[in-house]
Every structure is written in structure tokens, then in C-alpha cells.
Amino acid sequence: MSAQPEEIDRRWSAASPMRSGLVAPHAEPVVPLMNIANILTMLRIALVPLFVLALFVDGGHDPVWRIVAAALFGIAAITDRFDGQLARKYGLVTDFGKLADPIADKALIGSAVIGLSVLGDLAWWITLVICGREVGVTLLRLVVVRRGVIPAGRGGKLKTLVQSLSIAVLLLPLGGWFLDAGMVLMYVAVALTVLTGLDYVGQAIRVWFAGGPGRARGA
């Protein structure tokens, strides 16, 4: 004897996940690639070649173009201040952003110090220390990534800030005490570069021996 429509409806209602207390899992929201944080990161990357071109106009000795180069560098450095904050605050973190943001930072700082050294405005040993530290930290990160994550510390952020300030000052076509102040800032930046690099090595060693493959120790 076939079931009546009313009985079928009752059976369907009883088997419903919502009626039985079962709730379907919520899918994680998909973060669009073209969000404000990633746009700022891509803008910073796009500004790097423009900054280099402006820096080397007329052999790097045209005051107007040096000011333009300093302005482009400043704009790019400011985007670095906001893209990460926006990504974390509004849930806009993407794999692209995680990869592109540090690349943009290193490209900007690296091109600036190399450019200043080529022009004779910055000693090459300073450039080698700064670039060597960044390459070393990147290699360490690749080595320990399967055993854990090394969290970003305040020292690294302070290092980047002082580096950016000193570079901006040295880019401007000014001399006298202003140039001296820029060099003092650069020496402070070099000291922070070395100290934070050594701290990173220490953290990498601790993560390597404390964490097994796949274990993360922080973000």
C-alpha cells in the first residue's frame, strides 16, 4: 500500500538536517584577489621601476628628478604601512598577498640602496649588509617553513621604518646637516639590520629543533 502525500511530507521533515539538529557546515568566505590590500601591494611593485628610472635621470644628479624619486619611494613605503593592516583588519589575507608583500618590500629597499651605491651616495658595504641580510632571512624561511613559522617581530618593523627614513633623506638633493642626519639614520638602520638578522637566525634554530614537520609555532 503506497504512502499518502501527507505521510511522505512528515517523513521528509523528520529526516531534514535542520529538524534533526544537524547544521550544514559553513563554507569559508572566498577572498577576492583584487582587494584593496593586494592592489596596494601591486602598486608598490609597479612603483619600483619608476623610482629607479627617476633616480638615474641625468646620471642621478638632477635635483628635480631626485625629489621625484624620493616622492615615489615615499609613496611606495607608505603603501607598505597600510596593505598588511588592511588585509588583517578586514580579512583580506590571500596567498598572493603573503608572497607578493615581502617581495615588494625587498625590491623597494634593495633597488634604493643599490641605486644610491651606484651613484656613489652610499658605501657599498652598507648595501651588501642590507641586501645580504634580506637574502639570508629569505633562505632561512625556506629552510624552516616545514617545521614552523617564525612570527614577525617589532624589531623587523622598526628596522624597515628606519631604513625607509634614511633612504628617503639620502635621496633628496640636500647637503650639510641634513645629509649627516641621513647617514646617522642609515648607520642605525644597519645596526638594526644586523641585530634583527641575528635574532631571526636564533628563532630559526629554535623552530628547527622544537618543531616537527607540519607544526607551526606562530604567525
TrEMBL record:
Biological processes per GO annotation: glycerophospholipid biosynthetic process
Compartment list: Membrane
Cited Gene3D superfamilies: 1.20.120.1760
Enzyme Commission identifier(s): 2.7.8.5
InterPro entries the UniProt entry points to: CDP-alcohol_PTase-I, CDP-OH_P_trans, CDP-OH_PTrfase_TM_dom, CDP_ALCOHOL_P_TRANSF_CS, Phosphatidylglycerol_P_synth
Keywords on record: Lipid biosynthesis, Lipid metabolism, Membrane, Phospholipid biosynthesis, Phospholipid metabolism, Transferase, Transmembrane, Transmembrane helix
Record field: transmembrane: 36-57, 64-82, 122-140, 161-179
A GO molecular-function descriptor: CDP-diacylglycerol-glycerol-3-phosphate 3-phosphatidyltransferase activity
Ubl conjugation among keywords: no
EC main group: transferase
Pathway membership, UniProt: Lipid metabolism; phospholipid metabolism
A GO CC term attached to the entry: membrane
Membrane-topology descriptor: Multi-pass membrane protein
Family affiliation: Belongs to the CDP-alcohol phosphatidyltransferase class-I family.
Protein name, UniProt field: CDP-diacylglycerol--glycerol-3-phosphate 3-phosphatidyltransferase
Biological source species: Nocardia tenerifensis
